[in-house]
Design a protein that fits this description.
alpha/beta; Rossmann fold; elongated; five-stranded antiparallel β-sheet
Length: about 650
Amino acid sequence: MDHTTRDRRFNESVADWVRPIPWQLFVHLTFPWNVRSETADSKFREFVNDLEKTLKTRVCFIAGKEGRSKNGPTVPFHFHVAMTAAITIPLDLVKTTWRNLIGRSNASELKDDSVRVDPWCSHADGLSYLLKQISDADSSWDCNWIGLFHPGPLYSPDWKNERQRKTKRWHYQPVKTIKVPVSLSIVELAPLTVTFPTTLCLDTLDNFPEVIEEVTDPITIADGNIEATSLPTEFIHRELLRLIDSNEMEAEEERTAIAQQTAKALAQNPKAMDSILATAASRLSAVAGSRVGYDPQVNWKSYRATVDKMEAATDMPELVTGFPVFDSLMGGIPKEAVMGSMPGKPHHGKSIVIDNLIVGMLENNPDLTVFLHHVDDAALMRIPRILGVMSGLSSRSISKAGASLLGPMAAEFEERYRKAEEKLNRWIEEERLVLADQSVLVNTLPAHEQWIRDIRRRNSKGHFVSVGDNFHLFDLPGMDPGEGKVREMSRFISTLPTKHGITTLFTMELPKENLRAGVRPKYTDAKNSGGISFDSKLNIGVYQELQDLGDECVLSWTSSNHMDQVTNPDGTTSMKEKKLPIVEMIIDKNKVTGEKKTIFYRLEPMSGRMEECSEMEQTTMAMSLEAAKHNNRRFTYPN
């Protein structure tokens, strides 16, 4: 017998073996990228697990994974699957679950061909088709829970295997119930109901907390499930209730504290009801999440998701800013999982630095979305500054664009202004830049997170950076002022990058004791945000020596475009080049690349546009600061 005949007979034998199973669906699954074999397998297992969790029952399947077309050429891996369950599997559920896993949740039915689901009746020879290549080196097959749905005698009569006996008992025995008095509970609680799905075979008591579904009248447990554990019924009841009570006690204490703080906040400020309740909901969600026990499947899925992201990162740079020294040091702004802080004194250019970084990132990263929640400034002040960075025009002239378009320099102004405004309009129209001041979005952290969630839902594929300006103007309603509230706010924003797969940056003010002239900001100095120094992965202090020290400053630059009229000793007047500021970005905490450095930028004060100093100038300025430090000046310079 040749190999082809043998393979065909083997495929037909497998098809005949599973044909008696009452299959419900024939499913075709593909990927929108050239997926690796291991990733395809992990995505398929995750797909089946998600279906089982949603349906709360076992899903029986037989699947063929193919990496070659029927004509021979290699093609991306895809699956043909036959599946069934003890209940009807909705077609839309299968489609939605698969699209969510492969990042096509927003795709329309007409445009997306990554999943096709048909009732089994339309696939009379579907098994032969999906198993046609299982003997091929580039293909494979898999199945699960065949024994639960196959009507034939799959096991030997003596039933020596304990697991097989449990499985058969789960499938064929009717579910009976035992009523257990609530008095077995160690802690007096409201009456409880713990319902186990009929499609469950428990091996150990550790599985009990994971299948609790609802809380109503007395405890109801399936006879077969208790019998499957080989443990005394009364012991299981007592241990189950102990686990429920101990977890519920701790959670109830935290919920009570949240309720009391929320009620107090509502009484003090009823107008802020929406934000106060949103904060309470967010904190309650965190309490619920903290009570979830260890789940090896969750651990494995998290690992696979991380590896997939690592392997999908085909370019070394992060989010390029267009500033060569910064990008060389940092690789750009990190794409996700990083919370950055940006402390600085008032009027030292924190918002200007943010605007320059945003414009640079949007111009150099076409798949980036930036959300700027500028609590510090109204839109009428912030948008002209962003346009000033883009055009090089005075932000004040832009804020009075109507007058500027009629002025003596109207032609030059209009050309540069229109070009910048059209680009900014396109970014906002395409939802690449989302701007929100207090007239659009309240200054609360839960509201900030809700917008992140909503924007992320609309565009889940690209990279996302959220910016909060300024942290000390945000609020977390429902909590009393004080150190505890500040710590909770810090913890709140530090969880955003991991929860939503983003990078987030917040500007910060400095406390009064750090406002002395010549004192540069450090990552431990942020005002009202002591926890930030521990929670942030990246700290960029912003400092202008000219703003702090005036004529005594070491660092400044001049330009013939900026002149001052001065009076000479003989009473005559002349024009002199004006000192212009050098902005220092002091990177003193960096868990991204580990590098620490101060980077210097020339700031054009009228437009707000920053220009990074050359490598030679960087070295010269650093040496000037070092010399001033060794000359025993009373001012504090970075190490």
